[in-house]
Design a protein that fits this description.
Layout lengths: L2 H34 L3 H7 L2 E5 L2 E2 H12 L2 E3 L2 H4 L3 E2 L2 E5 L1 H9 L4 E7 L2 E6 L40 E3 L5 E3 L6 E6 H7 L4 H5 L5 E3 L10 E3 L2 E3 L7 E3 L16 E8 L3 H4 L9 E7 L7 E9 L3 E12 L5 E13 L6 E14 L3 E15 L6 E2 L21 E16 L4 E18 L3 E2 L5 E4 L2 E22 L2 E21 L5 E4 L19 E18 L4 E17 L5 E21 L2 E12 L18 E13 L3 E18 L2 E22 L2 E16 L16 E10 L6 E10 L2 E2 L7 E2 L2 E14 L2 E10 L7 E4 L5 E3 L4 E9 L1
Parallel strand pairs: 3-7, 14-16, 22-25
Antiparallel strand pairs: 1-5, 2-4, 6-7, 8-9, 10-15, 11-12, 12-13, 15-16, 17-18, 17-46, 18-19, 19-20, 20-21, 21-23, 23-24, 24-27, 25-26, 26-29, 27-28, 28-30, 30-31, 31-32, 32-33, 33-34, 34-35, 35-36, 36-37, 37-38, 38-39, 39-42, 40-41, 42-43, 43-46, 44-45
Helix pairs in contact: 3-5
Amino acid sequence: MTQDTRGGIAQAAAAALCSLAALAAPMAVALAGPLLASSPAAAQTAQTHAFAIPAQPLVTALARFTEISGVQFFFDAGMARNAQSPGVTGSLTPEAALQGLLAGTGLTYRFTNPTTVTLVEAPKTGAAAVLPTIAVEGRKSNSTAALSELPDPYAGGQVARGSRLGMLGNRDFMDTPLSTTSYTAAKIEDQQAVSMAEVVSNDPSVRVTGHAGGILDAFFIRGFPVNEGNVGETAFDGVYGVAPSFRVLTEYAERIEVIKGATALLYGMAPNSAVGGGINIVPKRALETDLNRVTLDYSEESQFGTRVDVSRRYGENREFGIRFNGSYHDGDTQADNQSRTAAVGALAMDYRTERFRGSVDLIHQAEDFNAPARPLFLTTGLATPDAPNNRRNITQSWEWSEITDQAGLLKGELDLNDQITLFANFGGGQTRVDRLFGAPTILNAAGNTSVTPARWAQETDRIVGDGGLRGKFETGAVSHTATLQATRYHDEISRGTVNAGQAVLSNIYNPVARPAQSVAEPSSLPKVSETDLTGVALADTLALLDERIQLTLGLRHQMVDSRNFSTAGAVTSSYSEDANTPMAGVVVKPWQHVSLYSSYIEGLSKGDVAPSNAVNAGEAMAPYVSKQYEAGVKVDFGRVAATAALFQLTKPSGQLVNSVYSADGEQRNRGLELNGFGELLPSLRLLGGVTLIDAELTRTNSAATVGNRPIGVPELLGNLGLEWDASFLQGLTLTGNAIYTGSQYVNTQNSQIIPSWVRYDLGARYTTTLGQTPTTVRLVVRNILDTNYWSGVSSFGGLGQGEARTMLLSTSFDF
């Protein structure tokens, strides 16, 4: 990195830190005093929220109350079945709002902990009054049961207080020595996000490289690619191998969690060897209050859809829960010649007792495109042309794709006693792809393109299982939360291709319709590869001084076995290696609402096999170990939180030097992340941040590329999202969002580049009651200025086309 570059990054970092300080200072003055005077549990119940719950049946009013406040309920359904709530409006504490909701219902309440309430019948007239009590002791953050509980929403409800750290379970963000973000179901619904990609794009360290209107959601996290292969790298409830491979639709997601950086200890090696970060889907579970929700939605040009969400709990103690989420969408999209049909069915069942918690998740997801958008490649030496109109789609109307996913996961946890929990997971999934299209290449500055369609079919089968023990014990003044886990992941890929199409010429600015081609379906799908990832891991979090100092230490032994096959079924190459990946992280809380942390953690990628033109042809490289160092500070003002993190992540790679293939390549990314979220005011919510990345190819096989910037990694990324509850109309919320992405190189020679871009989104939602039916209307317009832009570059140089101005409208009814 040159001195000028260092100076530019330093100046940008200083400016960003000053901006954050300017934002934080007045909030600190206003909020620090009362917050430091209260205990964490008391603060939880003292926080105010903007409530706008109209009169309606009590059970649906309580469901909306839970979405806003995060407080959960236990009660006999029959007791509240016919009760009507008068509703409540205003900036109130959960307790004050609950008093208003229960007025005149004949019911009262009792807090069993700061986020759980039991409803009981109010005492008869003349009987001794029983005052509600608030339990302030709560659970310690490191209790074994707390590891599997869903962290509470943070103020504002857009993100949660914590995330699942793989084998370590759920951790509050203030107790986590890594950078994490967990987006809530409320955020997903209010954004009207179709797929996971639209949600994680709210994080300034994450950018989607997939094409708008395409079949694959791929990402860069901290400047490294994630989910670019044929096997998905999204975890489902902490387990790889269950979530759909190409795109994860949002209907069944309660939380979408992002862990930035290497995660080998936490989740094991990612199926496609990603090291930049991990994404986990937390599935929806049955709520404490019954829910019947129907949502009707529309997006341009004529895409209509219906979603249903039904939740029930049964049993004397409501121990058995069932929740179904389903949807169907069909119609034309905003891209020329393109239509989309999608169907989702997700069933979640759970059972819980004092000592046991079990769940079953079943998912069916199908998504079909006519004229699916494709990434575009540049001819060698061609300067990147201007982005075309985002509605232009050079994929022919007769090209198509069909992707179907089926998956299931069985989970169980048994508390052997108050200190030890036994857990086990077993599941898997199947992805079936059938498609007819090709990969277009831009030939010249005029935007002419050429592509040869091919018929391609693939079936991916995955099986995963893990199990282990979590325990809590003490050694003197030090408390321990230890986890021992064994994992196994297996996948098989079968594929058939028929390359019988004819070249199609078109233009990105003026697409040309060509005669339809018919390419026969592959006669068979021979197995082309299989992979086994097995591992054993042990981790322990040591805490002392009332958890003001927490030290996490862990080690995973990972074994990687893979085989490639010819069409005749013979093994053409094989790979079998192992590696140890440690983690060490420390959190120190010098003050109650401030966490200082640092950590070291490794990522793991499958090593290459030396190619046939190397003198060591056939030699298997040991797994590539990526190393991440991170340090940061997190400040929780109670209603608003701010975080800052410095990181360095290096990833080795194989390359040919003097006819010898070796693990001699390296990419190093250094960066600064600044993030803020929460409620600036009772009616104003913030979600945003800035990421600065200094990325460099530190070792290559060409002196001309050493020191260059890697493909697809911007220097500066930023997000700013605001929500305001309008003062002039009760129930109305106005939203705005801005996304900035810096310029990116398309090749390692840094001779091809796409410019920086910024996109603005606007929206509104209105909550009211139609008759006795709570109703929410949501409107979002993405890319309000209809800016044309290249959205990003994949690690292999494919250009993604930005999203055209798109209006999304939905109406939800809670019956």
